[in-house]
Amino acid sequence: MVVEPVPSISIRWIPALPLMIALLHGVMLIVIRRPLSRNIVTSFSCGAALFSFAAAAFALAELIALPEGSRALSDEFANWFGLGAGADLFSADFSFRFDTLSGTFSFTIAFVALLVHLSSVGFTREDRRSKAELERFYCLLGLLLGSAQVLVLADSLLLLFVGFQGMTIASSLLIAFNYEDAPCADAGRRALGLGVATDAFALAGILGVFWYLTDAGATAVRIQDLEPWLKEMAGRELLQIAGIELSVAGGVGLCFFVAAAGRAAQLPMHFWLLAGARAPIPAAPLIVLSSVTGIYLCCRLSTIFLAGSELSLIVAWTGAATALFAAVLALAQRNLLRCVIACGIGQMAFSFIGIGVGAFSAAVTNTVQVTIAQSLLLLGAGVVVHGLNGEESMRRMGGLRARLPATHVVMLIGAIAPAILLAREDLLHAAHSGDSPAAGSALFVCGLAASSLLYVALFRMVIRTFWGGIRSPLSFRGHFADPPLWVMGPLYCLAFLTILGLALDPSQFWGDRVGVENSNSLSHFIGSAVATLPMATAEAPDRWPLVWASILSLFLGLTVGYLAYSRFAPFFKRRDEKLRPLREALASERDGAKLDTWLGRPVVAFSRHTLERGIERGLIDSVLIRGLSSTLRVIGRQGSKISQPGLTQVQLLGTLAGIIAILWILVG
Amino acid sequence: MSFSQPLLALSMGIFVFGILCVILRRSLLAIFVGIELMLAAGNLALIISNHHWAALEGDDAGLHGQVFVLMVVIVSLAQLALGLGMLVAFHRHRSSLDVADVNLLRW
Amino acid sequence: MSAILIALVIVVILAGLAAGVPGRSSTGGVLAFGITLCALSGVFVIFGAHFVAVAQLIATLSLTLVLFLFVSMLEGRRGAQAPGPERLHSRLGLVLVGGGLGLGLLAALTGVLPSWGGPAVDPPAGFGGYRELAGLLFEEYSLLVAALGFLLLAALVGAGLVSGRGADR
Question: Which chains touch B (3 or more CB pairs under 8 A)?
């Protein structure tokens, strides 16, 4: 599975270009304090995204051109630091690895980012924002994109962590973009706090890996060299604490899982991504993109995730619980963007189910499909919100089908997205019949229920926004229509890709039915880069019930959604008044406010009493600073009093000291 | 037991005390005392050495050390006489015995 | 017996030094100085230099008397010694600095200490007696004795001239 990479210099430009442009914007804003003009800012940033995508496409073409089994490119372009020598050598380099797994993710991210940049031009065109705000926005966007690419392409875990942190910072700053607005600032702050906490887990996991490696005598830190050691680590049971056997792989895997789950907004860390609705509209898809990187992390370290049964159970059930909860959450949302993001969280959670049961390729396929569909939905929602002059509540939408026909069609495609259905079906099949200890009927039923509810929520979103009577106030009943082509273009592209995704069947199942060979091209492509669990290949008759169940979930969801929210909406509306408190609680936008109490108060108290009063005022100010200065003052005053006036006595003492010194040297 | 070692160390100690007395005291009389202490220390060292060598070599050693001590005593007395005379003259004009006041090359 | 005596004498010497050198009052200093030198004469006696010890004793006592007279005469006239311009350093600082330098000097000098340990050997008979001393003085050092006489004369005359009232006219 370890492939010797071929050097390629096109890889470095994939993260480097967006980061360079972000740096340029940052320098212009902070150091030179003269923001560039709008046209220059947008053209530079979009150009960087375009060239980054071109580099990714070029690299992908190069990769595909390589013979199967040796598909990996690498680019070592700088040495970061090195310690020790010979057998004790530890070096971390700025080196990137573009193999089948990271290449897929990198290309997807680059593509989505390009479309986001292009459509953001249209969104910010009529903005009344100042030049500085625009430049800040593009700077953060570039930083987010660059960090995501660094994370995905990193060849060593240290560089991966750098990407992690960059993404945390960029997404928090984007969430808190309108920081003069207190809830925005709060949401950004909490996102940053949570992000840093989960990054700490990633760091713990990385340190665990390093500790194990150095213990076992390895000197490798590059991911390609990590494989055999990870396998060995996975096979070892090391610690015994209080009668419970803990494996190193299990502990490390748990740390990485917490980091990935935080990044991908799994339960209970989902709230920070929901707050992404507060970010400027074009940025929302990129923030959601950050959840993709969490799944990448798990797939990259797939060997560890196959290690223990406890870890598999935790991962799979977290995914299932998140999917269910996110679906329920989406059903309760009134805000259009939050509803879409909640659905996205739920759909992404299926990838974690896949990771838990060891179906990594299917998880990656699901991730790619969901990314495309989510971006489509978010951009479409952005078009709606923008057209309604910032109105985000679905209560005041409705009947927009006639005004925004194209948007309506693409959002419908994104909501139904049959390609996602296929990927999800494959994941549920693995959840039911896989060889993993986490697989089982309970997991399958949970996943199925979540899938149905997600379809209900998505269809509800479409119905409330586009169908029915116009509920928006009079002032909005203006002459607004579908945006021009340069805004809609990316949406058409994404919609097309969503349909095209039907071709990316994770397993050969549908391909065999329809007579298409190699329909599982993507999973085959990725397969060499991830660990594979030999799945119990169910015979066709045994799989069909599961397939029917999945298809049924789609139709059930759509039907229920249609009935509850369109056809018999008033009837259901009267009935669910009792659920009002629950709905209010779920729809509340005080994301993560509880975190302030649990986490915030002890931290603030510690900081105020111990750090500020104790260390800052007591130790540093009074003892070190004032004490030192007064000591020096006394020494100076007394010293100059004695030595300066030129007294004979003092000079004699000095002479005596000199004589003693000479005697010492001569005698001693 | 021969006491030469510790007493030589003592003579050095007295010498050091004498130096300190000269340097650290401000009164002229105290400085004279210091000078006398230094000379006394030298005398002690001479006597001890003389005793040591006489015990080793018997009659060949002689009493040269003690002769030197006599000389030192007499010379120190002469020096002290002159010094005290100058001190009286100085005091007559400056009315002070502080060494810091001895800052003119007159009187 | 001689060990106890020597120890006693050393203690007296050190006590006198400690009391006299860092002290502020000149009177006390002079007295302590006198006691120290008398004890030193005792050491001379223990080491068999009897004549020299007596000479030192006479010199010490006269010196002490003279200094005492001077102290009471000169300092008593204007009261206690007027304090200098300002107290530049504390007594503690002086003791510390002086003590440190003194110890350093002592340590440096102790490096040249010859190792004269071993059992006590008595000097020959008649050692330190006036007879032997006189013989040496008049046989070998007669010129030196004459010169010393001149020196003393010169000192006497000079002291009288310098301190006399007509000296500065």
Answer: A, C
- Residue A556 structure tokens: 């059930």
Inter-chain touch A660–C97, beta carbons under 8 Å: no
Q: What is the DSSP letter of A578?
A: G
Both tokens of residue A563? 């009935």
pLDDT in tens, A246-287: 677 778 888 999 999 998 888 888 888 888 888 888 888 878
Sole residue written with tokens 């899982």 = A257
Cβ neighbours for A101, distance < 8 A, ≥ 6 positions apart: A296, A299, A300, A364, A526, A529, A530
Q: Compute the distance between CA of residue A137 and CA of residue A91 in angstroms, rounded to an integer.
A: 35
Q: Of A423, A306, A444, whose CA–CA distance to A368 is shortest?
A: A423
> In angstroms, what CA-CA distances link A547 with A220, A358, A438, A544?
44, 19, 20, 5
Give the Cβ contact number of residue A4 at 10 Å. Answer: 8
Q: What is the DSSP string of A79-145?
A: EEEEES-GGG-EEEEEEEEEEHHHHHHHHHHHHHHHHHHHHHHHHHHT----HHHHHHHHHHHHHHH
| Average pLDDT of span B17-43 | 89
Assess B56–C contact: CB distance below 8 Å, yes or no: yes
Neighbours of B82 (CB within 10 A): 18
Residue B78 tokens, joined: 């002469």
Q: What is the ipTM of this complex?
A: 0.85
Say which residue the tokens 């979540």 belong to: A450
pLDDT of residue A145: 94
CA gyration radius, chain C: 21
Task: Name chain A contacts of C112, Cβ cutoff 8 Å.
Answer: 667
> How far apart (Å, rounded) are the C-alpha atoms in residues C116 and B8?
10
Nearest Cα to Cα of residue C59 among B64, B40, B48: B40
Using only C-alpha atoms, chain B has a radius of gyration, in whole angstroms, of: 18
Q: Quick one: which of A286, A476, A287, A285 has its CA closest to A385?
A: A476
- Compute the distance between CA of residue C100 and CA of residue C98 in angstroms, rounded to an integer: 5
Q: Are A477 and A495 in contact (CB under 8 A)?
A: no
Q: Does the distance separating the beta carbons of A647 and B23 come in below 8 Å?
A: no
Closest CA to A252 of A302, A202, A309: A202
Give per-residue burial for A625-654: e unless 16+ CB within 10 Å, then b. eeeeeeeeeeeeeeeeebeeeebebbeebe
Residue A631 to residue A634: CA distance in whole angstroms: 5
Query: Do strands A239-241 and A244-246 pair parallel, antiparallel, or not at all (unpaired)?
Result: antiparallel
Q: What is the pTM of this model?
A: 0.66
Residue with tokens 């005593």: B73
Q: How many Cα atoms occupy the beta-carbon half-sphere of A313 within 13 Å?
A: 5
**Strand pairing class (A6-7; A72-83):** parallel
Q: For residues A255 and A198, what is the distance between their CA atoms, to the nearest angstrom?
A: 9
Whether the bond into A268 is cis, omega within 30 of 0: yes
